[in-house]
């Protein structure tokens, strides 16, 4: 129980299990899942993202290591998207293979295993994680959704530039980028958040992880896991094995060593973050598959993250 991987992942597994039991007992009906998803996505996520970004000072961030992390994630996302054939469903699945649970699992895991110095780099990554990956995924999803919607109508085809413009507008005026941009802009004023504002935002933000994971469990209680198990295992393998392997290779070739490379590889090895589940719910794409993948990747990570953490020191010497 004292192993950092077990200590970090077990609470996540238990929260999903609470959701499964709650769903099986019909304490939360399936009809309420969409409303709870909106609560998490449109309220709790907003508070978490704005508060996180409101204390980020761009001049203090070391962009070199984390920019490589995002380059690897974006490359893997693009390859997964192209292999499946560009579609909004494929974009959600590609996000599953690249978006890590860096907050609920990453912070306690890295803190317990590597100490305070390692957390500095992880916090830099976390401060940009949603901004870069979720905004990137949102733009892609909106572009693909616009193309699919246009193809379903028999009227004259919309001009490509107009489609791009509308997709970019929808991606910016969106529940994910807006609080990130607002928080980042506010941070540059140097004013800080008054306690009367900061405290409620903190409480709402802290509720995001537990409520989102319980919601995963509720959805899981009614999902066809058997039908999606093969796909969930494949996505979990990409997320917890291929993603960290690519990060390790790219980092090593770029000259990263020591704690910097270790933290980025461990971050890449983490299971799928709950934000991907919320994206699948919002766009109503691959919902059962993504729900199963979040749960399966969390269970698989008990083995794969331990393996990654064991092999890294041997490989780096």
From TrEMBL:
The keyword Transmembrane helix applies. Signal peptide: none annotated. Keywords: Cell membrane, Membrane, Transmembrane, Transmembrane helix, Transport. It is a multi-pass membrane protein. Coiled coil: none annotated. The keyword Transmembrane applies. Pfam families: Mem_trans. Its main location: membrane. The chain crosses the membrane at residues 6-27, 39-57, 63-83, 90-114, 120-145, 166-187, 207-225, 232-253, 259-278, 290-312. It comes from the Bacteria. It is found in: Cell membrane. Belongs to the auxin efflux carrier (TC 2.A.69) family. PANTHER family: AUXIN EFFLUX CARRIER FAMILY PROTEIN (PTHR36838), TRANSPORTER AUXIN EFFLUX CARRIER EC FAMILY (PTHR36838:SF3). This is AEC family transporter. The lineage of its organism: Bacteria, Pseudomonadati, Pseudomonadota, Betaproteobacteria, Burkholderiales.
């Amino acid at each position: 129980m004292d192993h950092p991987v077990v200590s970090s992942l077990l609470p996540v597994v238990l929260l999903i299990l609470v959701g499964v039991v709650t769903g099986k007992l019909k304490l939360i009906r399936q009809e309420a899942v969409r409303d709870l998803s909106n609560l998490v996505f449109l309220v709790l996520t907003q508070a978490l993202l704005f508060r996180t970004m409101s204390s980020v000072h761009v001049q203090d961030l070391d962009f070199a290591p984390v920019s490589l992390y995002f380059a690897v994630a974006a490359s893997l996302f693009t390859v997964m998207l192209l292999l499946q054939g560009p579609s909004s469903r494929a974009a959600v699945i590609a996000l599953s293979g690249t978006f890590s649970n860096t907050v609920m699992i990453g912070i306690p895991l890295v803190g317990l295993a590597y100490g305070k110095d390692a957390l500095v780099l992880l916090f830099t990554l976390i401060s940009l994680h949603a901004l870069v990956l979720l905004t990137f995924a949102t733009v892609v999803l909106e572009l693909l959704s616009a193309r699919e919607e246009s193809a379903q109508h028999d009227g004259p085809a919309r001009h490509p530039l107009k489609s791009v413009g509308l997709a970019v507008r929808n991606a910016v005026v969106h529940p994910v980028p807006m609080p990130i941009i607002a928080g980042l802009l506010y941070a540059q004023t140097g004013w800080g958040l008054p306690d009367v504002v900061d405290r409620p935002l903190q409480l709402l933000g802290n509720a995001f992880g537990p409520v989102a994971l319980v919601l995963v469990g509720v959805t899981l209680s009614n999902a066809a896991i058997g039908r999606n198990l093969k796909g969930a295992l494949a996505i979990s393998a990409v997320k917890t094995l291929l993603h960290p392997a690519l990060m390790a290779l790219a980092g090593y070739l770029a000259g990263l060593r020591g704690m910097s490379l270790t933290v980025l590889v461990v971050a890449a090895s983490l299971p799928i973050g709950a934000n991907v589940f919320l994206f699948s719910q919002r766009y109503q794409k691959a919902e059962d598959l993504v729900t199963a993948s979040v749960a399966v990747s969390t269970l698989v990570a008990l083995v794969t993250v331990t393996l990654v953490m064991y092999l890294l020191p041997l490989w780096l010497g």
